[in-house]
Give the backbone structure.
Amino acid sequence: MLTRREALIGAAWAAAAAAAIPATPVMAEVKADVGALPRQKVSLVAPPFVHDHEQVATGGPKIVEFTMKIEEKPVVIDDEGTALRGMTFNGSIPGPMMVVHEGDYLELTLVNPETNEMPHNIDFHAATGALGGGALTHINPGEQVTLRFKATRSGTFVYHCAPEGMIPWHVVSGMSGTVMVLPRGGLKNDKGEPVRYDRIYYVGENEFYIPRDEAGNFKTYESLGESYDDTLAVMRGLVPTHVVFNGKVGALTGENAMKAKVGETVLIVHSQANRDTRPHLIGGHGDYVWEEGKFANPPAKDLETWFVRGGSAAAALYTFLQPGVYAYVNHNLIEAAELGATAHFTVEGEWNDDLMTQVDAPRPIATN
Amino acid sequence: MKPTTTKLAGVALVALAIPTALIGLSQGMQLPADPRVRMAETVRIEPGSFTHMQPGEFLQDSRPAAAPRVPVRIRRPLEIMKYQVRLDDYARCVAAGACKPADAREAGEVPVTGVSYRDALAYAKWYSEATGEDWRLPTDEEWAFAAGSRFRGDIEPLEVDTANPARGWLSSYRREVDLARKPDPQPKPAGSFGVNEKGVADLAGNIWEWTSSCYMRVTLGPDGKAIESAIENCGVRVVQGFHRTYMSNFIRDGKSGGCAVGLPPDNLGFRLVRDNSLGMRMARWFRGGWIAS
């Protein structure tokens, strides 16, 4: 009799074998060019923060090395203590952002520890060929793999897990993140003038589909395998139970609210690997928004709300002009207020009366 | 219908005849008019004075101002339920067809949660009829008086800068963060949060309680005390608990009913006070006399 583990390994081997034939010559061709390039090893940080990086590249193309460990674990996703059987890149939902420059090579070592239940892989929307790398990165528990791809297009691009037969389940269980490929000369506005940011935040939006019991309470499961059938049934209804930023209702509020100062320029990268969304900064704007996330296109100006297509990441640049507490929401306000898609910015600085003033405070209606 | 009314009238007449004895029987020893009703354990608090942070929103010189702290005197003994109304008590009202089922998470001997101000009123009406007594929600002042050291009031900004309203918003936000109160949504058995110095249990735990007081917006005079104008909005009521907040009267889940920014109540519930005011006793007497004749 096959154990569960053996059955899964069998499926993954079949997939890897199918992918191996076209892939081999491609890998051979690249090696000669790349060997001499300088290498840079980068430690990833958990969102909403982003690892240190240059906005304008100094020097020529290089190989930027990252390592991510896949962690399967229960993740609490709301204040009620509801637990998702989570699957994560590097332990966070979303997975960490990786930043390189156009022309660089991104080299990822992906580790699937023996303690995990599932095979995994990674599909980079920034990469070309082999299902975004998915066909070359299938790994079973106890294996690791290293993939290198050339960042040929600038922009913000989603990455996600994409194992055959269960792609959406892995994605809505938490396995997505973003790669940002900056133009070597940095970001440019619609006139081609350089623009910089003082801070960058990565807001990953995820929606979850948690099964309920007969009484309407969210169910918990002992393992990923046990949660699969019920979760798939909820997923097929297309009505999420939670829509959250950074993996949990309220993850970017209170102590973890994002911070800025009046006069600072902030780049907000917003990803959704599975479903459309529409970020909006209440009381602010997007000065320059790469709605599709691709920096070769001129940014749209002065947006109120921007549309993020499911399976993409957008980048919005904004200089804060007024202090206060800002809510940053998915402007389907039901999803923002009832399902969790709300974050906060606390912005320190001087109030600008010219931009806004309360001319007459609330008082009883004037009568003759 | 008729026998029930007569029984109620009887209880009312007895109450009028020996009001002091009735007030004395405060620890749940009294028999209810309806045997299916569990008499709530109450605490009697002697009259007293205290300084009270007024509820509502205050403006002075067109800018947000701190709520005035004013001396308040509670003139009559306050008889208040020791515990919040329990889910199984509330279920009796539902079974009687007088209350809508609560959006409660649990069952049994935990406080009822997932109830609106309107639900609390419906329960008070039913409970008064079932016991032959007059029960109502406490006012904001009465709740604060009973809560004593457990009363916190509104989370006011630490800074008020007339030139920069954002300082107030940011400092309120900071205060809430510094309180470091973690969400605690699971209702706990009665008594889990202990009693205060007045013997009242579970104040400022994870249930916020409806009061009968209306939301007010008040414009203060130059001294910061005199009221220049006030607008009352009774569609919004004062809610008391870990902090004081304001909710529309139909809201059952404080998280949905609250603001985009701010500390939401974990749960909405209530407790009642027994009204022994002269007015209520007179009303009972007239009602009783009329029915008896």
Summary: Chain A has two domains: 39-184, 201-348. Chain A touches chain B at residues 79-81, 217, 254-255, 257, 282, 322-325, 327, 329, 336-338, 342, 344, 346-351, 353, 358, 360-364 (CB under 8 Å).
